[in-house]
Amino acid sequence: MANALKEEARAHRDEVRRREWREKSMYLTREEAAAGQPCRGCGLPVIDNLGDWPGTMSPEERDEYAAVKTRYEETHPDCGSYSWTMAGSRSRHCGFCCPPIPFSDSQLADVARIFMSSKPRDEDLDIWERTLTCGHRMRRPVHHTNSGPDFSTERCEECETTRGVVSSEKVVEAAARKSEAQRKRDEQLDRAELELAKAEQAAKEAHRKLDELRAGSTDE
């Protein structure tokens, strides 16, 4: 519970900060960042055009990298967040202090394509029941190849707020879902085969009656 409450407090803190960014219009567009406008959180360039840090650095580059790291740690000692940089830049920014830059159209298209191509089938999903700090429970589907849900917080629909997760329990195995899905497919196949057999029998009977009618017409 203590850890869940800690994660919940962190999530609430981040939500307040993101709301502040929106209300104060602190997000830069990609065009503004490319034009050289500084980050509205820390004041450093977002795109400095200095290039990525090389894999093998010279002594001067190592000193510069260490200085950037030290400056970041001194500026954000208690943020407890991740850091981020833009491709082709060396400025380091704080996930709590610095509003991120939105994805480009091509990046959004790539993400959408990945999600569309990797949409899992229901029978490949385990179902986990998660108990939240408020006492409410919610269920989340997770692909069977994962050991469990990744997130330490969830949006409680009853409280309408983010809550920490106290415990998670797998309540439906993907194997059971697969077995149930296969059983339903087998039932559908059996019904289809029965309907086909009835249709074939009806067709034979119709042909027989037609042949009788034709034979009677010939006799006359």
TrEMBL record:
Residues 200-220 are annotated as: Disordered. Residues 200-214 have a biased composition (Basic and acidic residues). This is Uncharacterized protein. It comes from Promicromonospora vindobonensis.
